[in-house]
């Protein structure tokens, strides 16, 4: 079964508007499958193949001429020199949807796009499967721990492979190889330690100096390695909220791994049952919610404007979504039971930020109820959230109070 992707309609639409469409995302997120489905009438060229790549690098003009009506060029970051020649090609022809490019190393690809293809390329991003995609594909597990443990990479779910075994191969084959090829990392053991330590920091305020010290590397090396993990869509830094409150707010970002299954693997968690009692279960759940917010924006073709709120007194809200007209605040509670005092932080921040129009506690249970203008939302209904605009009307039939 092929994973249904919410990005497909937008991908088609962008191809009708631009001569080049660039699709980036982590390895194995489903980019190749998606572009081959959507553009099944185009030749497919994989630049991972050494002979194909050699041809493209040796004679880029001849390589592009081999495809007079354009093509899908997969893993184009393997031949970045092609980007300048693509610029010349599209300026001469101006045919919409002519070239479809994919890449998993955003660090190199985006630099090339900005320099060579500015104004000519539409950029889209594809992360692993989101909650609604898991549901549509029939892969959404019955309990929260299983959802988090399995993550969203399509291959093990589609093939019904043991997720942990697949992720072991993924880390060795893709993450380490790709990052080492970008950075020229000589000390693999230090990098493996660093990668595992990033998982222990997911959902936490980032201290790069401490992270580097524990990994046995310098602050600058830790910053460089984390930057490549971000460019490879493995991790992200969530900035602190900073709007009209000045020095009262913290300045350090939070670190989040973008796939909960990968986070569990790097934490050494061997089963969903083990995750249930793990001390970082709440942090993994918080990162999962942040990742779902990012996926929802990417699938809609919008730029995420996400942050977290924390002031000098320790008042904190896990996720703040700037929707333009207002703000959405979310607290993550991985437990199945939510008491009214779970809204205390949201209520306090709302008193400081009148634009915080919607307040949600997303939890690991099934109860859906509201109190004092806030709502307890089951994790399975996360995709009902209006991420990029204020809701036009309230959902009906919400019980009042926890009882």
Give your account of this protein's structure.
The structure is a single chain. The chain has 403 residues and is of the alpha/beta class. The chain folds into three domains: 8-125, Rossmann fold (3-Layer(aba) Sandwich); 131-286, Arc Repressor Mutant, subunit A; 306-400, no CATH class. The protein is built from 17 helices and 15 strands. It has a seven-stranded mixed sheet, sandwiched between helices. The protein has a five-stranded parallel sheet with strand order 2-3-4-1-5, with helices on both faces. A hairpin with a 5-residue loop joins strand 9 (306-310) and strand 10. Helix 8 crosses helix 14 (260-266) and helix 12 crosses helix 13. The longest helix is centred in the middle third of the chain and has 21 residues, at 163-183. The model is unreliable at 390-403 (pLDDT under 50).
Looking at this protein, list some descriptive labels.
single chain, alpha/beta, Rossmann fold, Arc Repressor Mutant, subunit A, disordered C terminus, 7-stranded mixed beta sheet
């Amino acid at each position: 079964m092929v994973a249904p992707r919410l990005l497909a309609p937008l991908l088609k639409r962008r191809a009708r508007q631009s001569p080049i469409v660039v699709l980036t995302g982590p390895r194995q997120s489903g980019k190749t499958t998606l572009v081959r489905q959507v553009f099944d009438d185009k030749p497919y060229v994989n630049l991972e193949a050494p002979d194909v790549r050699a041809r493209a690098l040796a004679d880029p003009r001849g390589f592009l001429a081999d495809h007079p009506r354009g093509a899908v060029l997969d893993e184009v970051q393997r031949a970045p020199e092609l980007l300048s020649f693509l610029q010349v090609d599209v300026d001469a022809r101006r045919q919409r949807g002519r070239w479809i490019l994919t890449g998993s190393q955003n660090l190199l690809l985006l630099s090339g796009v900005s320099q060579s293809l500015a104004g000519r390329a539409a950029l889209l991003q594809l992360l692993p499967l989101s909650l609604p995609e898991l549901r549509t594909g029939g892969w959404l597990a019955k309990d929260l721990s299983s959802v988090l443990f399995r993550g969203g990479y399509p291959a093990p779910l589609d093939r019904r492979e043991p997720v942990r075994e697949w992720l072991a191969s993924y880390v060795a084959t893709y993450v380490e190889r790709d990052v080492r090829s970008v950075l020229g990392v000589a000390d693999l053991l230090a990098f493996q330690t660093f990668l595992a330590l990033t998982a222990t920091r997911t959902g936490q305020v980032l201290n790069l100096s401490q992270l580097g010290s524990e990994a046995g590397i310098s602050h600058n090396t830790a910053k460089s390695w984390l930057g490549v993990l971000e460019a490879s869509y493995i991790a992200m830094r969530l900035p602190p909220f900073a709007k009209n409150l000045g020095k009262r707010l913290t300045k350090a970002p939070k670190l989040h791994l973008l796939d909960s299954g990968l986070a569990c693997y790097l934490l050494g968690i061997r089963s969903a049952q083990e995750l249930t009692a793990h001390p970082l279960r709440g942090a993994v759940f918080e990162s999962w919610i942040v990742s779902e917010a990012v996926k929802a924006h990417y699938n809609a073709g919008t730029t995420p404007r996400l942050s977290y709120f924390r002031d000098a007194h320790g008042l904190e809200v896990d996720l703040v979504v700037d929707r333009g007209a207002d703000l959405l605040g979310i607290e993550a509670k991985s437990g199945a039971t939510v008491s009214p005092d779970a809204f205390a932080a949201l209520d306090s921040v709302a008193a400081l930020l009148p634009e915080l129009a919607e307040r949600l506690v997303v939890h690991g249970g099934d109860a859906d109820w509201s109190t004092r203008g806030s709502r307890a939302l089951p994790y399975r209904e996360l995709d009902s959230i209006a991420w990029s605009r204020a809701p036009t009307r309230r959902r009906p039939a919400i019980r009042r109070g926890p009882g």
